[in-house]
Amino acid sequence: MTAASEPASRPLEGFRIGVTAARKADEQVALLRRRGAEVEWAAALSLEPNHVEVGELLAATKEVLAGPVDLFLATTGIGMRTWLDAAAEAGLYDDLVAALGHSEILARGPKSVGVLRRHGLRELWAPESECFEDVLAHLRGRDLTGKRIVVQEHGQSLSMSAHALRRQGAEVVTVPIYRVASADDPEPMFGLIDLIADCKLDAVTFTSAPAVAALMEAAFSVGRRDDVISAFQSDVVAACVGPVTAAAFEMWGVPTIVPERSRLAGLVKQLETELPTRRDGVDVRLADGRTLIVHTDSLLLDGVPVELSPAPASVLMALLVNPGHVVSRRALLAALPSGQAGSEHAVEMAVARLRAAIGTKAVLTVVKRGYRLAVG
C-alpha cells in the first residue's frame, strides 16, 4: 500500500462497523480501517461455505438430461462454474451444454452471464436488478403449460419458486449445486449479535443473502432476534453489497442501504456518505426543488419547522435511509412505533399524514412495491 493510495481523509473516524463476510473479509476490514472505522468482524458463514454434494448434483444433472429443456434459469456464476466442472469430470459436459444450449436461458445477473458465455451459452434475458424475484416476475404472465424448466439453485433451496412455476403448468427440475454452511465457531457471531442488539454499532455490512439468514438464525437461537430487528430499524445501518442481499432483509422489515454498483468499494463509499449524515443530520433536495433537513429532534422544510407525529416521522426516517429508493410496505409497517403497526392501513395513514406535512408529491407510490421519497 503506497501513500498515494491511502484515503486523503478518514471519513469513518469515530464509527464502529460490524463485518459479517467470510470470504475477502481481510480486504473489507482493511478498507474500513484505513478510513478510520473501528471494525468488529464475525463471519456469518463458514470460510468454506459452499459444500457440494457431488452425488446429489450428478443425479440432478442426469434428471435434467432425461428430457428436453425448454427454459433454464441460471442464478449464480460460482454455481454455474461448479456445475459445469462437475459435469465435465463425470463425462456429461457436452450433453449438458447441448441441452442447455437448446433452451431459452434467463440469467439472474452478470456473473452467471459471464460463465454461460465462456461455455458458449447465451442468455436471452437478464434483469437489471440482478434479483431472482424479477426473473420469476418476468415469467409470471406467461403460459408455461407443458414447459420443462430447469432452475439452478444458489446455496439455498428454491423449492417455493419451483412450486410457483408448477402452478403455471410447468414441469420443474431444481439443481442443488451447493449448500451454504454457517460459521464453524458461532461465538464471534453471538458477540456481534449482542453489539447489534444493544445498538453499540453504527453499521453492519453484508455481502450475501445467506449471511443475513445465518445472522438472523443465530440471533433467534440466543433469544435476541427481535432486539436485532429493532436495532436495524432504528440506530444500526444494515449495509448490503447489492439488491439480492438487501432482499433477504425484507421479510424482517429491515431498511437497508445498497450501492449503485454491487461492489465492495461501492459499499464502503456508501457508508462514507451515509454514516456522517446520520450523525450530523440529513440534508435532502426534493424533486420539486425544496430542501428537507432532518436532525434527531427537528425537521426543516425550506427552513420552516415541520411538526410530525411519531408514525409519519418513522415513515420519513425509513424513506431517508436510501433517498429515492423504494421501501416496501412491509418494511414501513415494521418501522412504525410499537402499538401502531397493526395493518398496512396504518402505513397508508402514516404516509397520508407525511404527505400532508411535506407535500403530496414528495412521497411517491410505486405500485405493488411500496413508496419512495421524490428527490432531485
Automatic annotation (TrEMBL):
Record bears the keyword Aminoacyl-tRNA synthetase: no
GO MF annotation terms: uroporphyrinogen-III synthase activity
One Pfam family, short name: HEM4
Domain named OmpR/PhoB-type: residues: 282-375
EC id: 4.2.1.75
Superkingdom of origin: Bacteria
InterPro entries noted in UniProt: 4pyrrol_syn_uPrphyn_synt_sf, 4pyrrol_synth_uPrphyn_synth, OmpR/PhoB-type_DNA-bd, Sig_transdc_resp-reg_C-effctor, UROS/Hem4, WH-like_DNA-bd_sf
Keywords (A to Z) from UniProt: DNA-binding, Lyase
Ranges of the DNA-binding region feature: 282-375
PANTHER family according to UniProt: BLR5956 PROTEIN
Descriptive protein name: Uroporphyrinogen-III synthase
